[in-house]
Each structure stands twice: as C-alpha cells, then as structure tokens.
Amino acid sequence: MDNTREVGRKLEEAVLLKVKEIDPNARLTRGSGQGNEYSDISSSFSYIECKLRNTKDFTIKEDVWKHLNFNLPINTNKFCFMVHQNVNKVRLVTLDMDTFFEILKKSKENEW
User: Fold this and answer.
1) Which domain holds residue 28?
2) Range 52-59, long-range pairs (CB < 8 A, 24+ positions)
3) Domain holding 47: CATH number?
4) How far is CA 44 from CA 22, 49, 71, in A?
5) What is the domain count for the chain?
6) What does residue 25 show for φ and ψ, rounded to 5 degrees?
7) Residue 2: its pLDDT value, please?
C-alpha cells in the first residue's frame, strides 16, 4: 500500500471513529464508490466521502459532490457530507447549506 492510500485510509478510519460516537453501526463501505455503495462511510444518518489533498488548499469537485448527493436513495432521510484533509492534516467538512442550517435548527430545538 503506498503512502497516499495509507493516509487516506487513516482519514477514513478517523472519521469513522467520530461517526461511531453517534451511530455505533456506522461502517466503512466495501469498494468505496463502486457498485451500490458510493461513499467511503455509511451510517444511519449519512453518507460520507473522505478526500485527501496533497496541497495546502482545499478543492471541492462539483462532479464528486453531485455524484454523492444525486445517488441518495429515494425517500431517504440521510444526508451527505465530505471530509477533506490537506497536506498539513487540517480537516474540514463540506455540507449542503440547507442541510447545515436544518442540523443547527434541530440542535437548537433539542439542546440549546
């Protein structure tokens, strides 16, 4: 396994650990992006794609974002997000704006 694959796998495993704090049944998908599973991680509430960048800058490819979101099953309550890691190991999340504000709204209603 080359270093990029190893670092990418470590990113997926780190994200999975965080998701498992919320959903213990979350799992890495088999074949990531192949066949019926098109994200790196699947949970009861989301599909997650992890992207490793070998630069300081973050790039979000619209076609990857569309592929992730347009392949959601019909009538699902799940949402998609992406986790990006750059060369400095800074990690950021990409999330649809409406979904982000819906999460904030639900969080405020339940906890704030």
Assistant:
1) 3-111
2) 52/4, 52/7, 52/8, 52/11, 52/84, 52/85, 53/84, 53/85, 53/86, 53/87, 54/4, 54/87, 55/86, 55/87, 56/86, 56/87, 56/88, 57/86, 58/84, 58/86, 58/92
3) 3.40.1350
4) 9, 15, 16
5) 1
6) -90, 0
7) 66
Q: What is the pLDDT along the chain (112 residues), one digit of tens a residue?
A: 568 889 999 999 999 999 999 999 999 997 655 555 679 999 999 999 999 999 999 989 999 999 888 888 888 889 999 999 999 999 999 999 999 999 999 889 886 6
Task: Give the span between the Cα atoms of 46 and 56, in whole angstroms.
Answer: 27
**Cβ atoms 102, 69 nearer than 8 A:** no
Predicted model pTM: 0.86
